[in-house]
Amino acid sequence: MSLIEVKDLRKVYRIDQERVVALGRVNLSIDEGEVCCILGTSGSGKSTLLNIMAGLEKPTRGKVLIGGEDITAMGERQLALFRQKNIGFIFQSYNLMPTLTAVENVAMPLMFRGVSRARRDKEAKKMLKAVGLGKRMKHRPTQMSGGQQQRVGIARAFVAKPKIVFADEPTGNLDSHTTLEVMEMIVHMARDHGETLILVTHDKEIAQYADRIVRLVDGAIISDTPNQSIIGREEQAQPEEAATPAKDAPAEEAVPAEAVPSSEMPSPQADDPAPLPDPDAFPS
Amino acid sequence: MKIKDMIVMCLSNLLKRKVRTLLTVMGVVIGTCAIVVMISLGLGLQKTQEEALAQMGDLTVINIYNYGNATEQPLDDSMLEQFRQIPKVVAVTPVYSPETWGSVMFISGKYQYESSIYGVDMNALPLLGYQTDAGELPTGGKYDGVVLFGADSVQNFRNPKSKRWDEVPDLNLMEDKIEIVIPFENDPKNKKSISYKATVPAILTSDWSKNPSPGYSAFMDINYLKKLETEYRKLNGVKVDKNKVFSYNNVVVKVEDMKDVAAVEEVIQGFGFETNSMESIRKPLEEQSRSQQMILGGLGAISLLVAALGITNTMIMSIYERTREIGVMKVLGCLVSNIRTVFLMEAGTIGLMGGIIGVGISYGISFAINTLSMQGGAGGGMGGIGGMGGMSLGGSSIIPWWLVVGALLFSTLVGLASGFYPANRAVKISALTAIRQE
């Protein structure tokens, strides 16, 4: 059985009088230990999907089961406790506490759990060494570069040994060189600990680090493929630039059968998940 | 989260913004000072009043007067025994004078005592606070022959043959031989007159606030005095009216504490007697000084209210600054209740710190006021504050322990109350919006 099951998820925002459908009817299933990338342009609903999967937002309809538990039905306190135990977060803008040292920042999730200071500092130091910041334990975020800050963020996400780590555009604020470093690190960490990593990005290059790529367009999954095939095809498909997103439906045989019962999707053309025209993908 | 971690987080948050925290704390300091100093002045005033009242008479004493109209119940020894049974009553004594003037006389050599003699309960004298100039108050219960003279009663010994009235006899009442004489036909020299040897164990200090006042009089034990009277009647063949019921004219009841006076008075009035105590003067004075204290405390409370607004403002500001932090904490699994607790702790700590410093400074101010007013002399009071709002404040400021504890509790409570709204606001911050904002 898969670790995360997203069932008929729908999210509609109401902005003034207008109803904006952020997520149509999304079905998704992610296995334990998988590194899954949710790829989409801004406005595709990828962040909404991530937020709902992490229990930060309630869906309009549908369910998210994590380890069999329906997190959309949980109360605020239950969710907080659930996140303490099961979920790690890596943010685009790092979101470190400016007044805390690296060690204190990394130890924070453990502090919320009620771990004693001595123990959590020990764990945090171990994590910082693992991300190569052994010499910057006492530094504050302002004394570190973006890449270093994000490494602290990574250490913080993994320190409590969560089942799932969500990474929301983790390299969005980093230059291309650091991006490589940071991505390597995140993916390695996840694989070393056998943790499930859910990577949300608009960047196709980043997506290459994942086992599996789920493409989201206008709140619907249009393709869901193992990574190898995407790499192979992307290079071929690059010059074509023909397909319209809506018609580029998911590749069903590429996914675990139960994962995407894409009833709402238009009839899939499984072998042709052409890349989307994606202006955000390679900024400047 | 552990309590310890929350405390550390709270303190480090406060230390992060030292200047702002300090300014907010100062507000509470000023508020606390205002309240504590004002109340301490009120208490000082109250104490001065009480001291003034105490000079007028013992505040814990009730006088019962019986002008012969209490026909149903005589004010006799059995009634006195009932008074003694009333809770909080410390001592009860009759104030009794012999019915016939001259039925009991004191004679020392050529001198004869010519002033009032009071029969009292000797056991009650120390409890009623009688002091001695020399010797010690008698105890033990055997008071036959015992006489206590007031400090000035030596002037009431006169030589009946002398024509000079201003002559002060050369007598040492405690050491010279004094006889108690029951005269036959008003002539102490008569052979039939009975005489006993008097012992004088002490000279009472003159004190006009006391009833009976010891200044110019002599005190004997009530039972002994009555016995002497009976002997006088026998000797002179005075007949006692069998129908007349014996009743004391005046009884003094001493209670444990000022605040018991009203209740005990009520019980005694319940027996049908008229009572009199300083309570009737003290009560309105106390009410007056209480309302003065309320006004003074209220003035202080206004400044603390302003300080409370300051705390709320500071906390709201810090929520704006920390919106993102709070959001991240929530995303990382921090319980909402922990966030609320940290915020309340911060506000409470500001209150408590302000309270502690405020109480400290209040002690300083109080000391200064007391020193200044002492220099100004007892009658001068304190010039500056004394004239304020037409209220004459006593020259002293008193800070009792309960005021300190109360001030600390109150300032902390004000802090917590001011932090309540901001804390709830912090709790309501949406984690999503918070982490999204740039």
Describe the structure.
- The complex is a heterodimer of chains A (284) and B (438).
- Chain A has 284 residues and is an alpha/beta fold.
- Chain A is built from 8 helices and 10 strands.
- Chain A has a 6-stranded mixed sheet with strand order 6-7-8-3-9-10, with helices on both faces.
- Chain A is globular, with a radius of gyration of 19 Å.
- Mean pLDDT of chain A is 81; it is low at 229-284.
- Chain B is α+β, with helices and mostly antiparallel strands.
- Chain B folds into 2 domains: 3-56 and 283-436, no CATH class; 61-277, no CATH class.
- Chain B has 11 helices and 14 strands.
- In chain B, the strands form 3 sheets. A 5-stranded antiparallel sheet of chain B has the order 8-4-3-9-10. Chain B has a 5-stranded mixed sheet with strand order 5-12-7-11-6.
- Chain B is elongated and about 120 Å long.
- Chain B starts with a helix and ends with a helix.
- Chains A and B meet through α2 and α3 of A and α1, α7, α8 and α11 of B.
Question: How helical, in percent, are the residues of chain A?
Answer: 25-40%
Largest sheet of chain B: 5 strands, antiparallel
The averaged pLDDT of chain A comes out at 81
Helix content of chain B: 40-55%
Number of helices of chain A: 8
CATH domain topology of chain A: Rossmann fold
Strand order of the largest sheet of chain B: 8-4-3-9-10
Q: What number of structural domains do the residues of chain A give? A: 1
**Class computed from helices, strands and strand pairing of chain A:** alpha/beta
Q: What Rg of chain B is obtained from the alpha carbons, in whole angstroms?
A: 35 Å
CATH superfamily of chain A: P-loop containing nucleotide triphosphate hydrolases
Distance between the termini of chain A: 42 Å
Total helical segments of chain B = 11
The count of DSSP E runs of length 2 or more, i.e. the number of strands of chain B, is: 14
CATH architecture call of chain A: 3-Layer(aba) Sandwich
Greatest interface: A-B, 28 and 23 residues
Order of helices and strands of chain B: HHEHEEEEHEEEEEEEHEHEHHHHH
Order of helices and strands of chain A: EEEHEEHEHHHEHEHEEH
What profile does the largest beta sheet of chain A have? 6 strands, mixed
